[in-house]
Amino acid sequence: MITLSNITKVFHEGTVNENAAIRSVDVRVNPGDFITIIGSNGAGKTTLFNLIGGGIFPTRGRIFFNGDDITRMPEYRRARFIGRIFQDPLLGTASNMKLEDNMMIAFRKGFKGLKISLNKKTRAHFREQLVQLDMGLERRLKDNVMLLSGGQRQALTLLMMVLSRPDLILLDEHTAALDPKNAEIVLGLTMHFIEKYRLTAMMVTHNMSQAIACGNRLLMMDRGEIILDVGGDEKRALTVEKLIDKFRRIRSRSFENDEVLLSP
Question: For residue range 135-164, what is the model confidence (pLDDT) as tens digits?
């Protein structure tokens, strides 16, 4: 589905502030993959997502989607087939619009070329979908989204993305800004939607246990490189201790990011 071929991203190239954020990365995302991505701060995880989503372009290398070269395709065009949820719950919805209007935008995106109206039938469909969140939002279609909590907004963003039927979803530490209870709810909904709709997904997380437990593949990044790509039985046999040991053997140094190591 998505192939990154020899991708390098250098910021401020040729200046004293030159920073190679991604270094010669090759990775292939297959249909149905659920890939978790782990790494310390500055490893290049978010930059990788920005490159896939089209927010930035690579300095060198090429990106393909279903065989088509999309290396220079702008972000707004990639949004037709790539969905993304950010860490900040406020980024995925329009605060000053009603809940039903937010959902309508996503719903129309999922039915390309068709004219869909916000009517009684559509509202009934939205309520049916919102029931899955188990947050009572099916009774709040007329409320402005700004009245919702962070957890409710992130769950709504997730549902809206599912309604838009993307080919690939990028989850950029999408539970990190939530309190533990809401983080657990949103992660549970994520797993439910990925399985129910057979979504292809990539999820950045700072939680090693979560990265091991979720998905069929795990990527570990360090200093702009993918240093580990495991799946199948090898991934199922991983523990946090084994993952840290693999990092130590590959990089000949200790894994030192406290946020990752101390995550429950």
Answer: 999 999 999 999 999 999 999 999 999 888
Contact by Cβ (8 Å): 224, 58: no
DSSP-based three-state secondary structure for 162: helix
CA 263 – CA 197 distance, rounded (Å) = 29
Inter-residue contact 59 to 13 (CB < 8 Å) = yes
Task: Let me know if domain 2-81+167-261 sits in CATH 3.40.50.300.
Answer: yes
- The two beta strands, 217-222 and 68-69, are unpaired
Provide the 10 A C-beta neighbour count for residue 2: 21
User: For the chain, which ranges sit under pLDDT 70?
Assistant: 110-116, 256-264
Q: Domain extents for the chain?
A: 2-81+167-261, 97-165
Both tokens of residue 2? 């998505």
Handedness of CA 94, 197, 218, 226 (dihedral sign): negative
- Spell out the SS3 assignment of 28-43: EECCCCEEEEEECCCC
pTM, to two decimals: 0.89
Tokens of residue 70, six digits? 């999309």
| Of 82, 55, 263, 89, nearest in space to 174 by CA | 89
In b/e form, how buried is each residue of 50-76, taking b as 16+ CB within 10 angstroms?
Answer: bbbbbeeebeebebebeeeebbeeeee
Q: What is the crossing angle of helices 180-196 and 150-163, to 10°? A: 10
SS3 content of the chain, % helix, strand, coil (to 5): 40, 25, 35
